[in-house]
Amino acid sequence: MSSNPTSRVDHSEHVSFEDKPLRIFPVERVALEQIRPHEAVNQPDLDSFCRSFRGKGLFYKPILIDGESGTILDGTHRWAGLRELGGHEAPVIPFRYQEDDEIIVDTWYPFCSEDVGTLINLLEEIGSDYEPVSRDALDADDHPHPVLISPEKTYEIRHNPISLFHRLEETFDFQYTDEQIHLEQFVSEGACGFLRQAPSKQTVIEIAQRGDTVPPKYTCHRFPYKYPHIMARYEDLIPDEQ
Amino acid sequence: MSNNGFPFDVDRGHWKQVMSRLKQETDFSREEIERGLTFMLGRQASELLNEAADEENEEILTELEIAILHSNEEK
Known about the structure:
- Chain A has 242 residues and is α+β, with helices and mostly antiparallel strands.
- Chain A contains seven helices and 17 strands.
- In chain A, the strands form four sheets. Chain A has an eight-stranded mixed β-sheet, with helices on both faces. In chain A, strands 4-8-6-7 form a four-stranded mixed β-sheet, covered by helices on one side. A two-stranded antiparallel ribbon of chain A has the order 5-17.
- The radius of gyration of chain A is 19 Å and the shape is elongated.
- In chain A, 36% of the residues are buried.
- The model of chain A is unreliable at 1-11 (pLDDT under 50).
- Chain B has 75 residues and is mainly α.
- The mean pLDDT of chain B is 87.
- At the A-B interface, strand 3 of A face strand 1, helix 1 and helix 3 of B.
- Strand 3 (23-24) of chain A pairs parallel with strand 1 (9-10) of chain B, so a sheet runs across the interface.
């Protein structure tokens, strides 16, 4: 599967475009409390969705969920937005998440303009162990622990990755890219970035069932197909608004 | 499921559910049901294209904008 160079989608995502076939799925309405996020809500993204939904008057992108557990795979901010606006139900597409090998859990690679010393200071503040590693043939799949890549040096970090990235996200402004090669390009231009492994599907479900969350952009579910839009009206999904 | 010449396919589980229900409630064969659904989809496509060609239909322009926006976002 080839990918084109990254194109800027919004202010924080640098994503590779893939041409995928269109597949039709059943779209259902489920109560908002029956589905649960595994990813934290980012307030600017939530505000952006609410503005867009109000402005267009249409909800056009179903939320993708694991049909068995109700875990949200894609659409956390759409779910949060419906709740914020007083909705009761969401249009969803349920998947057989664990059984379907075509659905892949991936991650976004965060990068920022901070210098490596500032990032190292935070690691020390939170008690992380870190050690230099070679940049040669660096591959996220070979490193179970997160790796900090800077123009100067590269470090492997021994710290619970979820709590590590929660703290990093709270402290610094990150942009994200979906491919290691693009992360390395940004680092060569002076950024500092992180390689990390995606959690397993089972971990994703367990996090949601516990009521915990991972930081935004920690997971990225990849589907080998696109799905059609829907045309759900604002007043149908938010019936109680005056 | 094969795409019967349409520019999309159908989730296998969804298709099986549809076929199961239609076979249960009719006396048609699987091949007849597939053929019938293909023609029904063709009718829907025909109606959509008629709306798109209708100069007085403004709603279709809104949906086209949404469809293009959604297709651009899908990755």
